[in-house]
TrEMBL record:
It catalyses: ADP-D-ribose + H2O = D-ribose 5-phosphate + AMP + 2 H(+). It comes from Microbulbifer elongatus. Acts on ADP-mannose and ADP-glucose as well as ADP-ribose. Prevents glycogen biosynthesis. The reaction catalyzed by this enzyme is a limiting step of the gluconeogenic process. PROSITE patterns: NUDIX, NUDIX_BOX. It comes from the Bacteria. The keyword Metal-binding applies. InterPro entries: NDP_pyrophosphatase, NUDIX_hydrolase-like_dom_sf, NUDIX_hydrolase_CS, NUDIX_hydrolase_dom. This is ADP-ribose pyrophosphatase.
Length: 207
């Protein structure tokens, strides 16, 4: 009988046999094709299979929160993955960006806050990390909450040479939490929803 308090899976990385890995696309993103097999719960090894892996590294997201004035700031920008999204492919999201070689998570958070919001935020609270889409992507997202005065900071930001056109918007906290609670399609990406639900549970200790 298994231990109901132990959340660890039965198998580890050693139960996967990578037979072949090759890069099949290397552009704005990278795609690998793998031939592999893995151990089975019923015993032995499974048959060889082919899988494509969308290769992305670590990413950082930052929810901007003003505890004194009960405000939330979110970015609004075009997203290719939301091209057919109703009503619009422009999405409300937390500030976010990819970790570059040699950067710490906190350094990425502060760099992205400067580029996408024009802000310097010292008060960062780590929320958690998670895998956005482990069925086909290697990306891991690390979330923070940044506490800062959000009055009068709306504007348009982003790096033109990276084709960024980012509108920073500020909303009352209650409006944003109500949208998440109701399932409003205006906020429908995992990083924002997870961050806001964390804030709902932890806001009293942030001031």
């Amino acid at each position: 009988m298994s231990d109901k308090t132990d959340l660890r899976p039965q198998f580890t990385r050693g139960a996967v046999d990578i037979i072949e890995r090759k890069t099949v696309y290397d552009g704005f993103f990278e795609m690998h094709k793998l031939r592999l097999r893995h151990r089975l719960y019923r015993g032995g090894w499974g048959d060889e299979m082919e899988r494509e892996l969308f290769v992305r590294g670590n990413a950082v997201g930052v929810l901007l929160y003003d505890p004194q004035h009960q405000l939330i700031a979110l970015t609004e920008q075009f997203r290719i993955g939301a091209l057919e999204r109703d009503p619009s492919p422009w999405c409300l999201e937390v500030v976010a960006g990819m970790v570059e070689e040699g950067e710490s998570l906190e350094e990425v958070a502060r760099r992205e806050l400067s580029e996408e919001a024009g802000l310097e935020v010292q008060d960062l609270h780590y929320i958690r990390s998670y895998l956005p889409s482990p069925g086909g992507s290697s990306e891991r997202m690390h979330l923070f909450c940044g506490c800062v005065d959000l009055r009068g900071i709306e504007g348009v930001f982003g790096l033109a040479d990276e084709h960024e056109d980012i509108r920073l918007r500020v909303f009352p906290l209650d409006t944003v939490l109500a949208a998440v609670e109701s399932g409003d399609a205006a906020i429908d990406n995992a990083a924002s929803i997870i961050s806001l639900q964390w804030l709902q549970l932890n806001r009293t200790r942030l001031g």
